[in-house]
Write a structure and sequence with these properties.
Blueprint: H1 6-28, H2 36-60, H3 63-93, H4 98-129, H5 133-151, H6 167-170, E1 183-186, E2 189-192, H7 195-218, H8 224-236, H9 238-245, H10 255-276, H11 297-321, H12 349-354, H13 356-389, H14 391-394, E3 397-399, E4 402-403, H15 404-456
Antiparallel strand pairs: 1-2, 3-4
């Protein structure tokens, strides 16, 4: 398929299947809850394996294709981590015993890989036949990226896909588990346990996520073999990553925001590529638009890895600055006893700051400020990087004497005012009303304390 011999395809598929069987017989067959050490070791193993495959591609092919592979792998890995949030919701919804989670994850992931392979083959054939489909892929990723950017400001918990709740109506199964077994005997009849429902839910949920990830990786490389291997290796380590990140997923607050920037970037890259191979009659007379730059692989790799690194570091900093509220923490307006004084005390500002209302207000404010800061830093970093290393690209004329560098410089200026405008709107709708309530309650407490003190005199 394309530039890869069928023998290489056959060997690669056999090796991937072999790893799935190895996983099943060495870790999953004997049901147990993996330790952090076990999950960490095998997660690192699959990452090292993927890096080793990158060197193999460089040796047998070239570094350009190796760069395409590792960039696609990191992208798929990041999108897979985001998928774990929904996997966790499905596990909780079906109340899957910890001891059975390894089995359902591995089989669900295997189903997902088979379905993704069909998507990859179909996608490669469509792109080969109709180059204009790159426009559709690019537009779709731009839409998903913008939507995810907007959704990243929503503090509510992620929701499980609605269709998962209806799986029970389609597949009859018992309400009870039997360890990690597929069936259980009830009323003298052998029936499926809920594990079957969970596996179907996981497999098809991942298939829905593939609607984002497959176009994304085709934006990095159009070589089906590299697309397949990046997906396969990213999914192979997903089971171990689930247990390694269990309990840490909630701390990756800005992962969604980082993925929004990555998907948007790849969407732009796809549109640029579509313009470069343009055949659409009403765009430039059906001729390629040669002034549009092809974003190089090295830049894609630095951008994607840099955005992920910034998102993770920012998430960890946010988690450290916003520890979960302690149980029994006093609420706003609660009385504060001072044994040494019978006189009602004025406002206890330490208690106010510790209250849920104040903490929620602070989290809400940071949920806007932190992502916007990250966005501007990444945007500025890209601009500086292009100015330093992509001179030809920045000097590309757009119309007249105006080139790409001038437009990007003006966009830096516009971005500052745009962020300011967005913050003012956000503050007016989300922050100011709560701040007014807090101030009113504090003033009421102070007035009440002053009145009681005056009456006492």
């Amino acid at each position: 398929m394309n530039h890869v011999d069928i023998l290489i395809w056959s060997i690669s598929i056999a090796v991937v299947i072999g790893f799935f069987f190895f996983d099943f017989y060495s870790h999953v067959r004997h049901a147990h809850v993996p330790s952090m050490k076990e999950a960490g070791f095998w997660s690192i193993f699959y990452i090292v394996l993927s890096i080793g495959f990158m060197f193999l591609v460089a040796w047998q092919w070239d570094w350009a294709h190796a760069g395409d592979f590792i960039t696609g792998y990191f992208t798929e890995k990041a999108l897979s981590v985001d998928n774990l949030f929904v996997f966790l919701l499905i596990m909780i919804s079906f109340q899957v015993p910890k001891i059975a989670q390894q089995k359902v994850l591995l089989i669900g992931i295997a189903i997902a890989l088979v379905l993704r392979t069909i998507f990859i083959i179909a996608g490669a054939w469509v792109l080969e036949a109709w180059a204009w489909v790159f426009y559709l892929f690019g537009a779709w990723l731009l839409y998903i990226g913008v939507k995810q950017f907007i959704d990243s400001f929503d503090d509510s918990d992620p929701e499980m896909p609605g269709w998962v709740r209806h799986v029970k109506r389609v597949i009859p199964a018992s309400e009870h588990y039997n360890g990690d077994k597929w069936t259980v005997v009830e009323n003298g009849k052998k029936v499926f346990t809920p594990l079957v429902l969970v596996i179907v839910s996981l497999g098809f949920t991942d298939l829905l996520f593939a609607l984002d990830s497959i176009p994304a990786i085709f934006g990095i490389t159009q070589e089906p073999y590299l697309v397949f291997m990046a997906n396969a290796l990213a999914l192979l380590g997903l089971r171990q990553l689930y247990f390694l990140l269990d309990g840490l997923l909630a701390r990756l607050k800005y992962l969604d925001l980082g993925l929004a920037f990555i998907l948007t970037f790849i969407g732009v890259k796809l549109v640029f590529h579509a313009l470069h191979v343009n055949e659409v009659p009403f765009i430039n007379g059906g001729e390629p638009v040669m002034w549009v730059p092809e974003i190089p692989t090295w830049f894609s790799l630095i951008y994607i890895f840099g955005v992920l690194l910034i998102a993770v570091i920012a998430s960890l900093i946010y988690s450290k600055l916003n520890p979960e509220d302690e149980s029994g923490r006093r609420q706003l307006g609660g009385s504060v006893s001072h044994p040494e004084s019978a006189t009602p005390s004025p406002v206890d500002y330490v208690a106010v700051q510790a209250s849920e209302k104040f903490q929620g207000h602070r989290r809400r404010q940071r949920s806007f400020v932190f992502p916007m800061t990250i966005f501007f830093l990444v945007w500025y970093f890209v601009y500086v990087l292009l100015g330093a290393y992509a001179h030809d690209f920045m000097a590309t004329p757009v119309f007249g004497n105006i080139n790409v560098g001038l437009i990007l410089g003006l966009l830096q200026f516009v971005t500052t005012f745009t962020i300011t405008t967005l913050y003012v709107r956000f503050a007016n709708r989300k922050l100011d009303p709560v701040a007014e309530d807090l101030r009113g309650e504090l003033e009421d407490i102070e007035v009440g304390a002053g009145t009681i003190e005056g009456n006492a005199r």
